[in-house]
Amino acid sequence: MGSIHHQLTMFWLIIFYMLVLHTHNKGGLLVEGIGCNWGTRAMHPLPPDVTVRLLKDNGFGKVKLFEAEPWVMQALGRSGLEVMLGIPNEFLAPLAASVQAAENWVMQNVSNYISKHGVDIRYVAVGNEPFLKTYKGMFQMTTFPAMQNIQAALIKAGLGRQVKVTVPLNADVYESSTGLPSNGDFRADIHDLMMSIVRFLQESGYPLTINIYPFLSLNADPNFPKEYAFFTPGTSSPIVDGAFTYTNVFDANYDTLIAALEKNGFGSVEVIVGEIGWPTDGDKDATVENARRFNQGLLDRVSQNKGTPRRSTPPDIYIFGLIDEDAKSIQPGNFERHWGMFYYDGTVK
């Protein structure tokens, strides 16, 4: 009896999603340059086909995954969604140590899903913020060799042109000695390593992926000007940096990276924003209203094809995230389980 009741409940929930989403985005038009992160750390994840429909009906043409889970990958087959497929940090050491291990990983998780299931894999993201200061250098010796071995494996599989290699990094890999974007450079402890990685990306025609979280800037500093975290004009005074003026922290943060690339001779490297978003609960600033304001400002920029003061070409952006994840660690804060644009059950926030 309970099982039948659950199935009926799920049926009506799915019908509800479809009605809401059709109303929300009539025609299901995809938005160029916008993707979404699909995290799966949930106690009762939605059926994967429903999640794919959520993505498509809300205008997302791209999706970023943190690992290759069969139930997710199969649902993405012939969906029309472009996929950035992640490799967890714990795989970096074996992939760095063995080209054969990289070939096996590519065969199982890339070639297999492209050829047998029609998954449109465009990128392999090697690691997830592996140079975070809190990791204390744990992945610094293995990330770049793993990237090289994955590239070699993709080329051997005949996918060298179709699938690009990238590495999603936290914004703490670069900094500015004066606080101004124009003085941006890579962290001293990983500067040489970043030069090797960025040179590899530039020579291969691959993008660098960076995660930028204005909410975390606000959350970490009690003196941070709140209005500066949003894209809409507020009461904060703009920051003037030579010929450039900054009215929000995203532009300033992103341009610190661009300045770091330019300073070291890699100004042409493409940049993707791999994660950006705003939580809706778990902190005084984590509210639905603030998330709506932030995300709307972000989407307005994309629809206007707006770049930053230092780089006029806008990056592809992957919003974090699609659905709340109630099995995530709350060590960074209670807000960690509330980044989704949808609640745990898929209902619209």
UniProtKB/TrEMBL annotation:
<protein>
    <recommendedName>
        <fullName>Glucan endo-1,3-beta-D-glucosidase</fullName>
    </recommendedName>
</protein>
<dbReference type="GO" id="GO:0005975">
    <property type="term" value="P:carbohydrate metabolic process"/>
</dbReference>
<dbReference type="InterPro" id="IPR000490">
    <property type="entry name" value="Glyco_hydro_17"/>
</dbReference>
<comment type="similarity">
    <text>Belongs to the glycosyl hydrolase 17 family.</text>
</comment>
<dbReference type="GO" id="GO:0004553">
    <property type="term" value="F:hydrolase activity, hydrolyzing O-glycosyl compounds"/>
</dbReference>
<dbReference type="InterPro" id="IPR044965">
    <property type="entry name" value="Glyco_hydro_17_plant"/>
</dbReference>
<feature type="signal peptide">
    <location>
        <begin position="1"/>
        <end position="22"/>
    </location>
</feature>
<keyword id="KW-0326">Glycosidase</keyword>
<keyword id="KW-0378">Hydrolase</keyword>
<keyword id="KW-0732">Signal</keyword>
<dbReference type="Pfam" id="PF00332">
    <property type="entry name" value="Glyco_hydro_17"/>
</dbReference>
<dbReference type="InterPro" id="IPR017853">
    <property type="entry name" value="GH"/>
</dbReference>
